[in-house]
Amino acid sequence: MNFDVKAPVAQYSLVTLSYWVFTLSDGALRMLVVLFFHQLGYSPIEIAGLFLLYEFFGVVTNFYAGWLATAIGLTVTMQMGLVLQIVALGMLMVDNSMLSVVYVMVAQALSGIAKDLNKMGAKASIKSLVPADAQNRLYRWVALLTGSKNALKGLGFFLGAWLLAAVGFQTAVGMMAAVLVAVLVLGLFLLERTTGISKKPQRFKHLFSKSNAVNRLSAARFFLFGSRDIWFVVALPVFLQSQLEWSYLQVGSLMAIWVIAYGIVQAAAPKITAIGKTASDSNVSQPSGKTAFNWVIVLCLVPAVIAGGLYAAGSSTSLITTGLVLGLLVFGALFAINSSIHSYLIVAYAREDGTSLDVGFYYMCNAAGRLVGTLLSGLVYQQSGLAACLLISSVMLIASAVISRKLPA
């Protein structure tokens, strides 16, 4: 039996491979930069600054990438991300004396652009590979791609730390660049290049979605991801180090394990959301707008409960540690399901001709939520502590729930 490389399953496998390898490199590079520049004597504020342009250009890239993909195709857009990541890694292969803050920020900016080009291209291309009447398969494929991405990003944290210890910074960066080049060449030969090209030219004004469903889902996504990053990105690791006196290795391991577990739950979301449905239900694993609302309502309570636990624990380090770890695991599991439902809905809601426009606009809001959450995480934690970050997280989730209440089926 001949293997048809143009078949949807084969194309999905190639897209997933590209996304997986890129994600591994992205997670590894983040850990490499944090650990290596801390080793060089950079302050925590300087290290955080290295990622500022990375996050900012995530917003910008998502805004324009969807429009770009309608003209050049999703495959080319995804491969542009691979090329830019290779360039960013190449920039970091210079002597240590050249690695100034500004220089590394520019390299990280390219990496941020690369990440969102690759992500948008990979996720949007799935819609064209699945028939319109196979929404359950679409949900499973999106959940698998999204969940595996986050699990691999956590694995990338471990990979980056191991490579730094085993071969050093420049060699580690060079090895990752070589693997990305191999994946890029493979995709150039085997991936369908016309995927996602619009049948008619899309005007620049179409960057803003006219779909009420897409706009509502994008706004809900903004608050959903802001609610995570406001306490997870800066406040939690700083609290663990400064208040509970955890080592860098302990903090890094917890964050990596959390991201891996988060990805596993995301991939399993279709089975979890199908619990309680009958086999005759035509939507056994296909979520709706109501599904998104129901799951975010449950999540609203978790940060507030964790904050209450911090107050109740007083000065007991063991109680605080136990409460935080358990709360983090519960939050991660529920957040993963919410994220997976959203990732399916945006692909389902997106227009057939010009899917990347809607997906790009949606992920722009996602990136904006992450940026705002990250900035608030440092500001609110410095002023009022971790509990305040958690309470604001609950408020942002309530806002997401209110918006989600009118999402269509």
Keywords summarizing the entry:
single chain, 409 residues, mainly alpha, Growth Hormone, Chain: A, 15 helices, globular
Concise summary:
The protein is mainly α. Helices cover 79% and strands 0% of the residues.
What does this protein structure show overall?
The protein is mostly helical and 409 residues long. The chain has one domain (8-404): MFS general substrate transporter like domains (Growth Hormone, Chain: A). It is built from 15 helices and no strands. The protein has helices at residues 8-39, 44-50, 52-72, 74-91, 101-129, 135-167, 169-190, 212-232, 235-242, 248-267, 269-273, 289-313, 317-349, 355-384, 386-404. α8 (212-232) packs antiparallel against α13. 50% of the residues are buried.
Largest sheet: none
Radius of gyration, CA atoms, in whole angstroms: 21 Å
Query: Could you say what the CATH architecture is?
Result: Up-down Bundle
* Count of extended strands: 0
Beta-strand content estimate: under 5%
Unreliable stretches covering 5 or more consecutive residues? 279-284
Tally of helical segments: 15
Q: Secondary-structure map with pairings?
A:
Elements: H1 8-39, H2 44-50, H3 52-72, H4 74-91, H5 101-129, H6 135-167, H7 169-190, H8 212-232, H9 235-242, H10 248-267, H11 269-273, H12 289-313, H13 317-349, H14 355-384, H15 386-404
Helix pairs in contact: 1-4, 1-5, 1-6, 1-7, 2-5, 3-4, 3-5, 3-14, 4-5, 4-7, 5-14, 6-7, 6-10, 6-13, 8-13, 8-14, 8-15, 10-13, 12-13, 12-15, 14-15
